Amino acid sequence: KDVQKEGEPHVYLSKEEVKEKIQSYNSSVTDKLKMTLNANGIYTGFIKVQMELCRPITVQSSQSQGRCAHSNNDTAFYLPDGCVNTLHISSTNTVREVIEALLKKFFVADNPAKFALYKRCHKEDQVYTCKLSDREHPLYLRLVAGPRTEMLSFVLREHETGEVLWEAFTIPELQNFLRILDKEENEQLQILKKRYAAYRDKLEEALGGVWKP
Q1: pTM of the predicted model as reported, rounded to 2 decimal places
Q2: CB within 10 Å: which end of the chain, N or C, has fewer?
């Protein structure tokens, strides 16, 4: 069960407190994804982000990669459920920069403003989710919570705007969505036809047995 929870206030740590937390964090890490403290006080580390996207994403083709605008060769598809990506970031990276890095890693051409990063916490047999603001720092949240993902995990979702703002999508994106819907409709139609054909065969077989002399 997801329970929306308000964001918690940011607690600023001294350099010594950060050092102690990083040492404690690294001693608890089981997957070798440790944090490193630099001389300037900035630390680096890894976060894992689960992709929970309901709408298809537009992925750049090899010809259009590196361009800002959508290409006619770009394709849209649904990302598989449970897809998790690992990012190496620094303590200065914001939520907005993490979202942009994720999309870039997947060659996603969609506007980063369409997405939001959530933190998910497990407390007292309930799951709490909270949308993070663009200015928050995910690696700080990871450090404070520790390496255990059941204590804190990150999830990428579309913005919850109540209704989809279709005007925010480009023409190639909308055309790709229509192609996906047509394909899904045809697949469902074929499934229904096979199901009713099987019913018809069973009924005709049963009727044939009843009317035999």
Answers
A1: 0.66
A2: C
